[in-house]
């Protein structure tokens, strides 16, 4: 028989167990709430109070690729190696035969140092300094920016107190190929020049952050991680052809050095689209080793330099005369070797000759200053100015390149007596390679000037493809005027004294040269030093590609014939690269004289 006395202790025990169970359940619920339901909030609170750790999750900067997807700039992984000073101590390791060995800290420091290139004393000092500042320190930087090879060697040491944070670094697999154009990055990851800078909005990544708590042994406590993910940059596709650019870069270096020039550039534009297929220059800059380059070589002079175009402008004057003043390739003018016009302006040709009854074609073939100046009187200066402006002179280009220069074309009502004539043959006006390319591409492309472009697209990380917003094409001259100009420039290639030097067997080529005087910075010109240009397109009857070769102050040959060899080789390489079909007919022979 159960008595009251025996029931009372049992009841108290059950009551006590129930209370303990209730308390335990309450603790479990609270623990689940803290570590699961509201884990993120509490981790954030603990980190805000300095009770947690964090590290950056590095986003990867986007690639820069050429027209076919070949990489011009990309990212590789480097690693920052860190130590947990609190846990750097002697530890045991089991040998291959099962024997337990104690590995002293001194031995470990020596092994680390043999990989990182530091001394054992330097590694030890890193640990000691960190513990001196904080006896519970779990972080000290061992070495930043180590290579993948070094990272693997450190991992192979199997040390429990060393860990790594990966982050991307910029690399340029082909070095100086298009280096001046592509640009470069700073050691801090900031875009400092070229396409890297102008297209940073496409390429830049957004870094993330991972926050967490660690136990005393340095191990991350499960459930305490809070991650704000990184967002990679987009892929930037350029219009240039990497292999063609490489070849033309070697060619520019060869021609520039052979001619004793300061600089050389070779530019290729696809006539019907305005896409720049090559932008090669010498001296070149290797973005992998920027400090090895002179600061003046760390950007693209194709886009940043202006120059007096010289006789290349005679084609623009002739196009305006044909399209707007009723002239034809066979129109004639009597031209002595020098002339004084009614307003007092004086113009002379580059060499003495008897009075010649030039056709407009002949003026271009012999590049007569007197001839083109005399022809120019058949239209108003304002009308000619309007044509030059529509050709894009003084307008810059649609290419987004930092520091891009703009030519100087003064309004017609500001032209003095001499300037009115000098502008017909490329003096008293400056332009740029892109402006000149745009103008000649218009002559070749049935009179339509397409906006030049260097960027094909930007593909965002989510797959969205963004193409550049380009201005509308401009109809500068009529298709018929374009056809006549193409025939005239083809006759320059076949009848000029340098014709044999630039010919490509099987192909019809159109060309014009220019020898522009260079300012001495004192209101005059440098004696005997010029900026030389040779520009032309192929095929002449159905233009596909436009090529321009420039030399800055050549000294071996000082005229534009210094560019001939490089121009011929560049045209040859372009037709090979893009498999341009050879001609099936011969071009018309136009008379040079009346």
From TrEMBL:
It is found in: Membrane. GO terms for biological process: cell wall organization. This is Penicillin-binding protein PbpB. Its main location: membrane. GO terms for cellular component: plasma membrane. Belongs to the transpeptidase family. Gene3D superfamilies: 3.30.450.330, DD-peptidase/beta-lactamase superfamily, Penicillin-binding protein 2a (Domain 2). One of its GO terms (molecular function) is penicillin binding. Residues 265-566 form the Penicillin-binding protein transpeptidase domain. SUPFAM superfamilies: beta-lactamase/transpeptidase-like (SSF56601), Penicillin binding protein dimerisation domain (SSF56519). Keywords: Membrane, Transmembrane, Transmembrane helix. It holds the Pfam family Transpeptidase. Residues 59-222 form the Penicillin-binding protein dimerisation domain. InterPro entries: Beta-lactam/transpept, Beta-lactam/transpept-like, PBP_dimer, PBP_dimer_sf, PCN-bd_Tpept. The keyword Nuclease does not apply. The chain crosses the membrane at residues 12-32. The gene is pbpB.
């Amino acid at each position: 028989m159960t008595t009251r006395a025996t029931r009372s202790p049992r009841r108290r025990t059950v009551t006590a167990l129930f209370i303990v169970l209730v308390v335990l359940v309450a603790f479990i619920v609270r623990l689940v709430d803290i570590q699961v339901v509201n884990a993120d909030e509490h981790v954030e609170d603990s980190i805000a109070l300095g009770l947690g750790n964090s590290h950056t999750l590095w986003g990867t900067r986007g690639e820069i690729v050429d027209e076919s997807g070949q990489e011009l700039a990309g990212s590789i992984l480097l690693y920052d190696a860190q130590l947990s000073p609190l846990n750097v101590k002697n530890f045991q390791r089991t040998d291959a035969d099962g024997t337990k060995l104690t590995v002293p800290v001194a031995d470990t420091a020596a092994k680390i140092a043999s990989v990182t290139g530091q001394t054992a004393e330097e590694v030890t000092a890193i640990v000691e300094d960190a513990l001196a500042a904080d006896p519970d320190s779990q972080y000290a930087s061992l070495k930043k920016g180590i290579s993948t090879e070094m990272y693997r060697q450190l991992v192979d040491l199997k040390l429990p107190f060393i860990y790594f944070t990966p982050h991307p670094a910029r690399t340029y697999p082909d070095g100086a190929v298009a280096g001046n154009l592509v640009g470069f990055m700073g050691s801090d990851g900031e875009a400092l020049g070229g396409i890297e800078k102008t297209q940073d909005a496409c390429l830049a990544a957004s870094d993330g952050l991972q926050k967490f708590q660690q136990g005393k042994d340095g191990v991350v406590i499960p459930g305490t991680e809070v991650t704000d993910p990184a967002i990679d940059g987009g892929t930037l596709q350029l219009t240039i052809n990497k292999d063609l650019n490489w070849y033309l870069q070697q060619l520019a270096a060869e021609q520039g050095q052979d001619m004793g020039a300061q600089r050389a550039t070779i530019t290729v534009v696809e006539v019907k689209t305005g896409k720049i297929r090559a932008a090669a220059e010498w001296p070149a800059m290797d973005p992998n080793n920027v400090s090895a380059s002179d600061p003046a070589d760390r950007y693209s002079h194709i886009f940043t330099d202006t120059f007096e175009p010289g006789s290349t402008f005679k084609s623009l004057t002739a196009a305006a005369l044909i399209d707007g003043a009723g002239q034809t390739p066979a129109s004639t003018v009597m031209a002595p070797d020098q002339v004084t016009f009614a307003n007092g302006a004086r113009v002379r040709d580059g060499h003495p000759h008897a009075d010649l009854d030039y056709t407009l074609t002949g003026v271009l073939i012999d590049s007569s200053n007197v001839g083109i100046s005399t022809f120019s009187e058949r239209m108003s200066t304002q009308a000619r100015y309007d044509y030059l402006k529509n050709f894009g002179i003084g307008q810059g280009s649609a290419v987004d390149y930092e520091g891009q220069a703009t030519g100087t074309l003064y309004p017609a009502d500001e032209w003095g007596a001499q300037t009115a004539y000098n502008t017909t043959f490329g003096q008293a006006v400056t332009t740029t390679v892109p402006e000149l390319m745009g103008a000649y591409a218009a002559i070749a492309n049935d009179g339509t000037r397409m906006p030049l472009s260097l960027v094909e697209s930007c593909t965002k990380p989510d797959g969205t493809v963004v193409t550049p917003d380009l201005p509308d094409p401009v109809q500068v001259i009529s298709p018929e005027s374009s056809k006549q100009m193409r025939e005239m420039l083809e006759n320059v290639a076949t009848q000029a004294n340098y014709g044999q030097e630039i010919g490509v067997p099987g192909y019809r080529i159109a060309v014009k040269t220019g020898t522009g005087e260079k300012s001495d910075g004192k209101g005059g010109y440098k004696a005997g030093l010029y900026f030389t240009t040779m520009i032309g397109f192929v095929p002449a009857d159905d233009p596909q590609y436009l090529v321009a070769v420039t030399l800055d102050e050549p000294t071996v040959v000082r005229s534009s014939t210094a560019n001939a060899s490089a121009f011929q080789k560049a045209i040859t390489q372009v037709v090979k690269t893009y498999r341009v079909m050879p001609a099936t007919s011969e071009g018309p022979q136009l008379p040079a004289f009346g």
